[in-house]
Amino acid sequence: MGEIQKLTIDGKGYVLLSEDDYQDLVDVSDARAAKARIDAGEETWPEDVVKALITGEDPVRVFRKHRGMSIKELAEKSGLSQPYLSEIETGKKEGSLDALRSIASALDVDLADVA
Questions:
Q1: Among positive and negative, which fits the CA dihedral 99, 105, 110, 113?
Q2: Distance between first and last Cα of the chain
Q3: Contact assessment for residue 53 and residue 60, using Cβ atoms and an 8 Å cutoff
Q4: Which helix or strand (DSSP H or E) is residue 78 part of?
Q5: In this structure, how many other beta carbons lie within 10 angstroms of the beta carbon of residue 43?
Q6: CA-CA-CA-CA dihedral for 40, 42, 44, 50, to nearest 10
Q7: What single string gives the DSSP state of each residue in 29-42?
Q8: What is the distance between the alpha carbons of residues 91 and 58, in angstroms, rounded to a whole number?
C-alpha cells in the first residue's frame, strides 16, 4: 500500500489514498463478503460451469452435467419427459415456468439459474 494522507476539511477527518490502493481495499472487502456467504453455505460454481454458462451453453444441460445426472435421471426427478427436457436443452423449446421450476428444484439451483 502506498502513501496515505490524513486530511481535515471543515473539522471532518478524511483519508487520501491512490485509486489503486482504494481498489485493493474494495477488492478485499468484496472477497471477505464472498467468503462470508460461502462460509454460510452459499454454493459456488467451478470454473468449467461458469465458462460454459458465459459461452452460452444451455444452463439446464450445464447444471445437469455438473450434478452428474443423466437426462433420464433429471426427467424422473423433475417429473418431466425426457423428450421435453431434450427440447429445452437444445433450445427447441423454452420450457414453461412450471417446468423450469421443476428442473431448478431437481437440480437444486435457483430458478434464475436455469431460466
A1: negative
A2: 43
A3: no
A4: helix 71-78
A5: 9
A6: -150
A7: HHHHHHHHHHHTT-
A8: 8
Please write the tens of the pLDDT for every residue from 8-31.
999 999 999 999 999 999 999 999
| Tally of helices (H runs) and strands (E runs) in the chain | 7, 2
CB atoms near residue 104 (< 10 Å): 20
- Say if residues 91 and 58 touch (Cβ distance below 8 Å): yes
| Residue 95 near residue 88, CB atoms below 8 Å | yes
- pLDDT single digits (tens) 48-97: 999 999 999 999 999 999 999 999 999 999 999 999 999 999 999 999 99
Percentages (nearest 5) of helix, strand, coil residues in the chain: 60, 10, 30
CB 24 within 8 A of CB 1: yes
